From TrEMBL:
UniProt superkingdom: Eukaryota
GO biological process: nucleobase-containing compound metabolic process
InterPro entries tied to this protein: CMP_dCMP_dom, Cytidine_deaminase-like
GO MF terms held by the record: diaminohydroxyphosphoribosylaminopyrimidine deaminase activity
SUPFAM superfamilies cross-referenced by the UniProt entry: Cytidine deaminase-like
Coiled-coil region: none
Residues annotated as domain CMP/dCMP-type deaminase: 1-147
Protein name: CMP/dCMP-type deaminase domain-containing protein
Length: 167
């Protein structure tokens, strides 16, 4: 829940859009696997150039980390530290269900999470059918990603998602 709150902080950084949600996300990993999880990266909607999404941005930022930065995060990992290996031990916390369809033609976040072989996906709230019907959680499950619906912050996640809109 702590990480979902941090994801909500990310979502609040979004520049509101009338045609898109404001979503925040935090990527954590425990590596070696029995260690305490640390935050690898954070992301929010439209943070990186282009009509980008929170989850894809957090993944992109994780892949941009230097060896020095990774060594600080994962002091007992053997060098060189391979971010792709780290990601297979990662959890993603997102304020809203990762998208399964993108009307813009960009790659959906669910696909990016599956491709990175993220272990678990914690979700704050399901995507309402404001724009498209979202099947992200099902898509993740079908690909073997463990999906965990967190309860308690649904209202906040949805409110932030709809910032800058009427309802
Ligand atoms: Zn997305």
């Amino acid at each position: 829940m702590e990480f979902l709150r941090l994801a909500l902080d990310e979502a609040r950084k979004c520049i509101p859009s009338p045609t898109a949600f404001c979503v925040g996300c935090v990527l954590t990993a425990a590596y070696p696997p029995d260690s305490q999880p640390v935050i690898i990266s954070r992301g929010y909607s439209r943070e990186l150039p282009g009509n980008t999404h929170a989850e894809a941005n957090a993944l992109a930022k994780a892949r941009q980390l230097s060896q020095e930065e990774l060594a600080v995060l994962f002091p007992s990992a053997s060098r060189p530290i391979d971010i792709d290996t780290i990601l297979t031990h990662a959890d993603i916390y997102t304020t809203m269900e990762p998208c399964s369809v993108r009307t813009s033609g960009l790659s959906p976040c669910a696909d990016a999470i599956i491709a990175a072989r993220i272990k678990r996906c914690f979700i704050g709230v399901g995507e309402p059918d404001d724009f498209v019907k979202c099947e992200g959680a099902q898509k993740l499950k079908d690909a073997g990603v463990e999906v965990i619906w967190l309860s308690g912050l649904e209202k906040e996640c949805l409110e932030v998602a709809r910032m800058g809109r009427e309802h």
